[in-house]
């Protein structure tokens, strides 16, 4: 809250300086004024600037947009790895998104983020727009999965669905995107480098899946520069405003406009084969991965429904101590998510979601973190919006049911209550 308070002091200070300055507003920098609609409106109302001044400021380059969000989360439940109860309050996400418009067609985006004790750079890419095409170069999100591509502040639940585990997330690469049919049809294709950090590496240790992001060659290693080819096609009757939404309102979070819209998408990626058998008893070399995803949505009046299905196939070299050799093993993971929400009153909505994640559909070689073959989650949620304060409060109760192999005891309980406050600026 101190950051929000400081931001308000900065705005007040800018208003004071401009109001008492004898200089023309055309001499003020675009960095100070660009995208501050409330400030510009106040200055125009006080006859400090004219409409012509505002247009000139907004059309001048270079200029910078600043936006960000803060998520505070409280969780109460049981630690399924031990009998100890969990009650914790922490920063789930704190980020600052900087968009530097260098020219009318060229911009640079960078987004550092801190959360759960870790710091990272999510976006760091150059964007060039020309003749209906958008070219991205640098660290940016691989276009895979509807829920994975949503902005953080526009999530109906405290977390993305289980199908988003199959998404490669943010990786360095280059891609080209375009919109057709009046921006209703969006297409993006590109190539990314799978060697980035531990969250994107294979962690197949003792046949267990400790991390869902699997694109590197060996566990605990730096990777082998695996190239990932990916594409996405998406249709929306409402139209697409941008490839990577920045998040400046909750209006798209649910169907607040109460208008009907519908659409869906298809995502696909494939990683190059490694052909590297340098595995040991504790290390497994990934030979390749491919995945596809299908999503649908429908919104009408106060109701909103979404469906997503994702499937990933992994080929990897498994070391056998008995034969002291490696053999190629194939595994398949699938995930399904179905959710619905309804606006009860203008600022309150109720939501529910059922989702599954099967860790290995070809013989259960890969397991979940507790040795389970499959996760079945059912979530009930409440969202309340303080729109004027740019704040959303969420409460989610998640009933988690693990499907265990024969002879393996399931955790006593893994149900949890999540409370989260999201603020954006």
Q: How would you describe the overall organization of this protein?
A:
9% of the residues lie in helices and 50% in strands. It is mainly beta and 425 residues long. It folds into two domains: 1-60, no CATH class; 61-424, Porin, CATH 2.40.160.
Q: Can you summarize this structure?
A:
This protein has helices at residues 2-20, 30-33, 37-45, 51-58, and strands spanning 63-78, 85-101, 106-115, 118-130, 133-141, 170-180, 185-193, 204-205, 208-209, 227-236, 261-271, 285-300, 303-320, 325-345, 348-358, 374-386, 391-403, 416-424. With 425 residues, the chain is mainly beta. The chain folds into two domains: 1-60, no CATH class; 61-424, Porin, CATH 2.40.160.
Provide keyphrases for this structure.
2 domains; 16-stranded antiparallel beta barrel; 425 residues; globular; Porin; disordered N terminus; mainly beta; 9% helix; 18 strands
Q: Please bin the fraction of helical residues.
A: under 10%
Number of helical runs?
4
Distance between the termini: 12 Å
| Topology order in helix (H) and strand (E) letters | HHHHEEEEEEEEEEEEEEEEEE
Backbone structural class: mainly beta
